[in-house]
Design brief:
heterodimer, A: about 180 residues, 8 helices, about 0% strand, globular, B: about 140 residues, mainly alpha, 5 helices, elongated
C-alpha cells in the first residue's frame, strides 16, 4: 500500500509521459497484489493482464502517435481542482455508509450469494464460483460486457482508420 | 527490424508458454481463476509481443488484420448464438439446462461456449486495436 502511494505521487510529479505509462503499469501490478491479498484471484488476474499488460501497450502505442512530453496547462486549474476535490470528498462520504469491511451479515452476503456458494456446483458442475456466476447466473450481464468491448473496439477502430483514410484522400488529391 | 539477439531468442522461447498459459486460463477457468476475458487478453498479448519484437508484418502473417477484425463480432455471435440455441431447444435465452441431456452437463457446455465467445471477442478487439494504432503511426 505504501508503494501504491509512492507510485501515485510519482505519476503526478512526472512530466515525461513514457515514465508515467511505465509507472501506471507498476501501479496495476501493485493493485493486482492487493486483490491477491484480498483473495480475489480472478480480479487480480484481470488487473495484471489488462491493467499492466494491454493498457501499457495501448498507451505506449498512443505515445507513438503523439508527443511524449506533457505540456503545461494553458487554462487555470483552480476550478477543475476544486471540482475533483469536492467529488472525491463526496465519494469518501458515500463509502462511510457502507457496512464495515468483512462483516458476514452485510446486504451483499444476505441476498443471492449464499445460494451461489452452496448450489453452484450442483446446478452448473463448475467448481469456480466466479466463473459460474459470470457465465451462467449473470449471463446477460456478461453478454452486455462483451457488447461494450465490441462497441468500444469498433469505435476506436473507426476513429483511427477513418482519419487515416481521409488523410490518404487528401494527399492523393494534392498529388 | 534487427533488434537484440537476446530479445529475439528470449521472445521465441517465451511465446509458446504464454500462449499455453492463455489456453490454460481459458479452459481451466472452470476450476481455477480465469476465464474468457483474461485468456483473450493474454492470447492477444502473445501476438502483440511477437509484433513488437519481429515487426508488424510478421505478426500479420500469423494473424491477418481481417481475421482479428472478424473475430470481434464473431465472439458476440457465439455468445448470443448459445443463448439463441437454448431458446430454440425450448429454454429461455441463455438457459443452458436444455443444451445437453441433463441440466448440469448443459450448464457446463453453456459456460464453455460462452467463455469461448468472450475469448474470441476480447482477443480480436485487443489485437485489432493494436493493429489500428500501429498502422496509424506509419
Amino acid at each position: 500500500m505504501t508503494l501504491l502511494i509512492f507510485v501515485t505521487i510519482g505519476i503526478i510529479q512526472q512530466r515525461r509521459l513514457f515514465a508515467v505509462v511505465i509507472l501506471a503499469g507498476a501501479y496495476s501490478f501493485l493493485m493486482a497484489s492487493v486483490m491477491l491479498v484480498l483473495d480475489a484471484v480472478d480480479v487480480a488476474l484481470t488487473e495484471a493482464s489488462v491493467g499492466a499488460g494491454i493498457s501499457t501497450v495501448v498507451l505506449l502505442a498512443t505515445l507513438h502517435l503523439t508527443k511524449t512530453i506533457e505540456i503545461h496547462s494553458l487554462r487555470p486549474t483552480a476550478i477543475p481542482l476544486l471540482l475533483s476535490i469536492v467529488v472525491g470528498m463526496l465519494i469518501v462520504w458515500g463509502t462511510l455508509g457502507l457496512p464495515p469491511f468483512g462483516t458476514a451479515d452485510s446486504p451483499i452476503h444476505a441476498h443471492v450469494a449464499p445460494r451461489y456458494l452452496s448450489q453452484s456446483i450442483a446446478e452448473t458442475g463448475v467448481p469456480n464460483v466466479v466463473t459460474a456466476v459470470l457465465a451462467d447466473y449473470r449471463g446477460f450481464d456478461t453478454l452486455g460486457e462483451v457488447t461494450v468491448i465490441f462497441t468500444a473496439g469498433i469505435g476506436v477502430m473507426l476513429l483511427l482508420r477513418g482519419l487515416r483514410r481521409r488523410d490518404e484522400g487528401r494527399s492523393g488529391a494534392e498529388q | 527490424m534487427s533488434l537484440d539477439l537476446i530479445l529475439r531468442v528470449g521472445t521465441k522461447l517465451i511465446l509458446p508458454f504464454i500462449l499455453l498459459f492463455a489456453l490454460y486460463v481459458q479452459f481451466h477457468g472452470d476450476y481455477g481463476p480465469g476465464g474468457g476475458f483474461q485468456a483473450g487478453v493474454i492470447a492477444a498479448g502473445t501476438i502483440i509481443l511477437y509484433a513488437i519484437t519481429f515487426g508488424i508484418r510478421a505478426a500479420q502473417r500469423v494473424v491477418p488484420r481481417i481475421v482479428a477484425e472478424r473475430m470481434v463480432p464473431l465472439g458476440i455471435l457465439i455468445f448470443a448464438g448459445t443463448g439463441a440455441v437454448a431458446m430454440l431447444l425450448g429454454g429461455n435465452f441463455l438457459d443452458y439446462s436444455v443444451l445437453a441431456h441433463d441440466p448440469v452437463h448443459g450448464h457446463e457446455w453453456g459456460i464453455f461456449l460462452v467463455e469461448f465467445g468472450v475469448l474470441v471477442t476480447v482477443a480480436g478487439t485487443m489485437l485489432s486495436l493494436f493493429y489500428a494504432f500501429v498502422e496509424r503511426g506509419r
